[in-house]
Amino acid sequence: MRKTLTLAGSDTSGGAGIHADLKTFQELGTYGMTAHTSIVTMDPSASWKHNVFPIATDVVDSQLQCAFSVGLDAMKAGMLGSVEIVELGAKYIDQYKLENVVIDPVMVCKGEDEVLLPETVASCRELLLPRAMVVTPNLFEAGQLSRMGPIKSVDDMKRVAEKIYDLGAKHIVIKGGRSLQHEKAVDLFYDGNEFIQLETGKIDTTYNHGAGCTFAAAITANLANGKSVLDAVVHAKEFVAAAINHGWKLNEFVGPVMHGAYHQFHISRPVVNLVTG
Ligand code: PXL
Question: Model's pTM, two decimal places?
Fold first, then answer.
């Protein structure tokens, strides 16, 4: 059994963070393990406002010691929250020479505007990008990591991907998703050599909580299972598109993706077109 780890925040509402990752790891046939960096709760009496409770650094250290000791096939890092936790993650990746590292540089929860502190973004740029087999920023995160500001077009995505590659990440997937001014939902893959656009039809839903985490977790599980990086990314995009297609309303504030949709609804599996150049 291949072993996967997520170093991320716990989303009590079950759609994103560690919960999305574990469900996805399970769906894709790997053994999921966890290291919690924070616990996120939502206040039902304050329009589902997110409260983030950080986990003490020595507790994160202890979890990483435990998980890495069993021998990991791949790991994913999501919401890290502090420079100390970024440094710990980098230390364990080096100590155990882990290659299959997926960095999802979560800087903000959907609908919230509290952004990671600039020094945490800087430590992510300096310590995690050089250790990343794959990094999966959305448009905002890609703009922050590259320090190249707002991204408005596929051409902007290409310039930013080149910059993030120069910062040390081996493969970059910038998630344009449906926010880009384009008729399709476009993500851009770059491996330092060629650009590949991954295109799916835009899905008209707001029930997409946890989509980014699910995508990165699926890449992680696919790498653990021995897929090539491009195959891991393309399959993860199909997996998350199915999950978004079957997103559902949890309450008046949030609609999570359906992590199990890919395997439960074979007939409606989305198609991902690859456009090179
Ligand atoms: O979707 C971003 C995200 C990541 N990680 C955790 C979260 C969220 C958003 O709610 O709670 C733990």
Answer: 0.97
